[in-house]
C-alpha cells in the first residue's frame, strides 16, 4: 500500500465530502473515508499490475466522487454502508473458500477449522452490528452473513447442513462419486 498516495487521496477527499456535512460528523466521516479508501485500494497493490499507483488513484477518486455526489445528510451513512459492504463481502468470500477447501480430497482440517472459528466469531459480531443498525441493514447483508455462517459451522462440524452455494458443489461431487470426505463421514455418517 502506498501510504503517501492514500494520504494525498484523503486530503483531496476531505474537502469534497465534508462540504455541507454537520461539523459533529467530520471526524467520523474523515476516518470512514480513510478506511474505505484503504479497503478499495489495497487489493490493487497485491498483484504485479503496471502503473499500480495510477490505477489506485483512479479508484480512490471514483470512491471520493461517489461519496461527494451523495446528499450531505446521507454521506456518513453511505460511507458506513460501503465499508460494511466491503468487509462483509470479503468475509463472506473467505468463508466460502474455507468451506470449498474442506470438501476437497485431502483438506487440512485443523487449519481450516481454525480459520472457520475466527470467521464465525466475525460473522456473529456483524450479526450484532446489523441488529443494532436496523432492518434495512439486516436485509442488505443478512443473506451473505447467513451463507457465511453456515459455511463456518459446516467446516467446524457443528452442522451437517451446508450453505446453498456449497450444496451445489456437493451435488457435483456426489455425481462424480467423490462425496462425502472422510471427516464428514466420521462425524455425520456414523452407524447408530
Distance linking N and C termini: 55 Å
Sketch the topology as an H/E string, one letter per element. Answer: HHHHHHHH
User: How many beta-strand segments?
Assistant: 0
Percent helix range = over 70%
Q: Report mean pLDDT, rounded to a whole number.
A: 91
Overall number of domains: 2
Topology (SSEs and partners):
Blueprint: H1 3-17, H2 26-41, H3 52-69, H4 72-102, H5 109-133, H6 135-155, H7 164-175, H8 182-188
Would you kindly provide a written description of the structure presented here, covering whatever features stand out?
The structure is a single chain. This protein has two domains: 1-69, no CATH class; 79-192. The longest helix is centred in the middle third of the chain and has 31 residues, at 72-102. Helix content is 76%, strand content 0%. With 192 residues, it is an all-alpha fold. The model has no long low-confidence stretch (mean pLDDT 91).
